[in-house]
Structure formats: C-alpha cells, structure tokens
Design goal:
The protein is 41% helix and 21% strand. With 361 residues, it is an alpha/beta fold. The structure holds 3-isopropylmalic acid and magnesium ion (MG).
Length: 361
Amino acid sequence: MNTYKIALLEGDGIGPEISSEAVKVLQRVADSGRVKFEITTAPFGGGAYFSHGNAFPEETKAICDDSDAIIKGPIGLSKAESDKIPVEEQPERGALLPLRRRFDTYANFRPVYLPREIRSFSPLRAEVIGDGIDIMIIRELVGGLYFGGKERGESNGKRYVKETLEYDEEQIRRIMHIAFQEAQDRKGLLHNVHKSNVLMSSVLWNEILEEVAIDYPKVKVEHVIVDAAATALVLSPTQFDVMVMENMFGDILSDLGGGILGSLGLMPSACVGPDKSYYEPSHGSAPDIAGQGIANPYSMIGSVALMLDKSFGMKAESEALWNAMQQVFADGFTTADLSRGGEQLISTAEFGDKVVAALHL
Ligand code: IPM
Ligand code: MG
C-alpha cells in the first residue's frame, strides 16, 4: 500500500475550518484501504507571522520539503492586521510567492467548472450557460511581473517604480507543453491568451507556442487577445475548453472565472512543479466570515481532488470526489456563503459530512 506524506498549511481566516473538511475527506479515502496519508500541519500565512515571526517559517519549509504534496488553505489578514506587518513580509509576498518559487510550481490549473448541479449559483443566463461550462485555465505561475526585477526610487524629485515582465523561452516552452498536453487529453482545443499587439513578451510567447505546436498536430489553436478574452468569457464561455496564459493575465482571468461560477469559493486549483505540487483554493481567506462555520469547503475539497489525480494518480477517487460534491448541491444543500435563496443551509462541517456520505469509492 502506498503511503503519502502531505504537508497541510491551513492558512488564515476561513483556512482552518475548510482545511478540516479536506482532512475529513482524505481520511475517508484512506479508509477505503488502498492508500495511507500522513498529514502534518504547519504554520503559514499572516497568523504564522505573528506566532512564529515569519509568514513561511523554517519548520514549515522543512515539512514541505519532506512531503509528497502540499495542501494550502487561503492566506491573508484583514487590512488592519496586515498593516501591522512590514510590506515585504506580508503573507502574499512573504509566504505565498516564496512557496511558489521554492517548488517552482510553474503550472497552475484553475478549473472553471459549472456542471448542471451548481448552475444556479452563476449570474449568467441559462442560454449562455447552455449544457454547462467546463474550462481549464492554465496560468504560468512563477514568471512575468510577479517575479521580475523591481525597483522603487526617486528621480528629479519624483517618486517612481519599475517592475519588470520577464520570460525566457524555457519558461514559456514548459508551460506550453503542459497546456498542449492538457488540450490533447481533453477536446483538442487550446485558446492562447496574449497581448502581442502591445507586449514584446507576448510576441516571444506566441513564437514559442508555434514551435511547441508542431509536437501536437491534433490540437487546434485559437488566439485571443487578453482584453477580448475577458469579454468572450462572459458572453460565450462555452466556446472555451483549455486556455493558456502568462501569470498576471491568469490571475485576473481566473477570478473572472470565479465570477462566471458565482463565487471564488467554487475555484480549487493545482500548482504543479517539476518535483512537487501544491494545491490551494484560488480565493482569499475571507476574514469577515471566518470562524462562523458558513464557508463552503468546495474549493479545498476540490483541491484535494486535484491532488489525488495529479500527485498520486488516483483518477477514480478524484472523480468520485467531484461527483460527491455535486451530489450534495443536487440534493438541495448549500452553505450560507454561496446561498442564492431556496436551498437548505448547512454548516461547513455538515457539508464535509455530506460529501463523505456521498462518496462512492
Ligand atoms: C491568486 C492570488 C495570489 C496571486 C495573491 C494572493 C498573491 O490572487 O492565487 O490568484 O496574485 O497569485
Ligand atoms: Mg488571484
């Protein structure tokens, strides 16, 4: 039997409560007797800054290094709490980006998945949704503006700032291979999102795409400029299947994806590196509703589903987990954070219990 070591970084705000449900589900998967999980919890995020003096403490790094995969809850504090932390050490800059860099998690998978069972959460009209939406946004996660050189200074009495958008061809090539592979495994359609009418980085991006495309003759490529992509995602989302884009574009368009679904709470994600991957909700820590047991754990349990598939090759279990979550919604239950009225409201923990009950392994 395989034993997998998992580092669990619960994070801030609603992180701990939705993480508990992820653990509950993992335990159920382990109870099926095919696999064992050794889960080690480690401090990470704004809370860790105050308790350990560092948003990404050394002990957490060691636990992550020693794990087979990492599950990470959302991080971030209220503005008032965040303001007490020096800018460079705030959890996004001081923990999240260093985590991405440490494990070189360059391929970020963000499913915008709206099956029939949850279509009522979407603000889009029924005729726009059609038979459902199933888009995989693939975001390059360790390059571009996020990781380029930065400078702040003063010149001629004026304050200025400079941030650099950098990519080299290897960085582009490896994310393209991921995207083409995904498109080939799905419907054979890849939308390339760029801004080559303005940005030189997009010109190189598109050049590399053409080179990589030769290896995937069955994949049809459509090009779409990033601003037009934002409009098209709202007006006709069903035309898209796999979309690939650089880091900043992916940050923005994947949140638009959350808008299509009706909530970022319905957006899990996988951050895949060459040796190790980590899994996280795409949303923030929602400090305003933390501790009330009303946050839906979908994004955290969905991240577990992605982990089972991508890190451990447990495709059947992963699918069963997605289905179990849809089943809970189909049965008319939801948590208060997602409610549009008319559903039966249950707590975060009850949602987890129902997912476990609906899980057929
Ligand atoms: C995301 C988040 C992060 C990002 C923040 C918290 C730094 O918005 O994962 O999309 O911009 O990548
Ligand atoms: Mg974001």
